[in-house]
Every structure is written in structure tokens, then in C-alpha cells.
């Protein structure tokens, strides 16, 4: 009798232990281990890329020479291109940014991911704060070459490019995993176009858009890491069954455009630089190289942040804890 009761007790204890493990597994979903590390690594690399862009483009004679030539080359852009640039850049105003942020927040609330929506808003607002502080108070543009007075003021990073990229990141953050590819296909052309058209309108240089890409990417990664560490954001495996809709085709499409734009921009600049003299034709080639180079930079930045979100869904941490306790 004693031996039998002992065995029964041991069996019951084992079953209870198994049930507890099963319940714990159901309550606390496993967090993909690489997502936070991706954000950290990408954020650090983005900061390094931003610093390198500033040093090479602004603090060197060669950088200033090429980019000022590209600015002068923008004067040769056709009227149709200029009108298109004004139209795209006109979409970014304080009012439109507020509307975009409210739309993101409402969508996140509907999906019961309020903290994710707030994180998207923080990314957008912090992007503008950091950009304006860097441009107005931290970074300077030394007079290394003779230039028109309007070319002497620091314009790095580009506020418009930062706004476009942070809005894109916010959209990707709150969008369900399966729909991100479709959303990227729709929103990315606008975000990429904003950076390129700031060059056409002579509002910014090529380096300004690259630095803005770096600022937006670093802030997005930092906000996500902090949100997860504080428990307000939760990383879980993708909550939608099946493959993401159209992801492979969309990634291939943008990757091909990135390669083509990078090759074209670099080729134009290298050939023009090796030619030596800078005449009107050379200035226009520098302008075209800056234009497609800016597009390549924005494409790469968007794809990299999208990559950090692969096969995961970002949810609300507090909601997860409440569910666990109920």
C-alpha cells in the first residue's frame, strides 16, 4: 500500500509538472531570439553610416566639390521633373504628418496594438527632433571650396527624407506580417521619391538624404529595442498563417531597382570624376548620379528595416501580461 501510494503520488506530480509547463508555454509565447539583436546591429551600423556620410561628403574637398556640382546640375532639370518634385514634396507638411500619425494610431488601436501605434508615433516625432537638432546645432559645413553663398549653409540631414522614411517604418511596424509586402509596394515609391526630389528641387544634397536615411533607421531600431526591453512591445512569431502575400516578388523588384540605381549612380559619378573638368554636362551627370543614388539609399534603408521584422509580429507587451493573468 505504501509503495503504491508513493508511485501514484509521483505520477500525479509528474502530470502536474507537465501541465504547468504546457500552461507556461501557452501563456508566454517564445520570442524569436534574433530580432532584438538585428535591431541593435542595424542601429549601430546606421549610426556609423551617418557619421561616415557626413565626414566624406561635408568635411572633404572632394565631397563638397561633387555635391555642389550636382546642385548646379539640378538647374538643368526639365520643368516636368521640377513640377513633379514640388508635387511630391508638397505632400509633407505639418498637417499631413499629423494626419498620418493619427491614421497609424487608429489602425493600431483597431488591431488592439495601441503601444505599437505609439511606438510608430515616437519614431516619426523623434526623427524630426533629432534631424533638426543635428542640422541646426550640432553639424556644421566648413568652407573648403569656393561656392555660392546659398551653398554654404549646412543642410544635413534632410528633414523631408527623415519624415518620409519614419512614416514608412511606422507603417511597416503596425502592418500585419502577411500584408507588409503589399504595403511596402504602395508606400515605398512615395518615401523613396521624397528623398530624390529634394535634390531635384535643390533643397538638399545627396549626402543629406543618406544621412536622413541613417537617422530614421537608427531611431526606428532604438525605439523598438527600448519598447521591447521596457515590456511595452512584444515580439512573437508571425500571427498570420501561410506565406506573406507577394513578399518574394516585391523584395526581388526593389532589390533589382537598388542594384540598378546603385550601379547607375556610381557609374555616372566615377566616369565624370575621371573626366576631370567640371562643365555643364559634368554637373548634370553629377546631378543624375545623386538622384538615382538617393533612391538607392532609401531603397536599401527600407529593405533593411523590413528585414528586421521578418517572420515576426510586433504586439503590445502590457496586453500580453494582462492576458496571462486572466
UniProtKB/TrEMBL annotation:
It holds the Pfam family PAP2. CDD domains: PAP2_like. The chain crosses the membrane at residues 36-57, 88-109, 115-134, 155-175, 181-199, 211-232, 252-274, 286-309. Residues 116-224 form the Phosphatidic acid phosphatase type 2/haloperoxidase domain. SMART domains: acidPPc (SM00014). Residues 1-19 have a biased composition (Acidic residues). The keyword Secreted does not apply. Keywords: Membrane, Transmembrane, Transmembrane helix. Residues 1-25 are annotated as: Disordered. This is Phosphatase PAP2 family protein. It comes from Gordonia aquimaris. The lineage of its organism: Bacteria, Bacillati, Actinomycetota, Actinomycetes, Mycobacteriales.
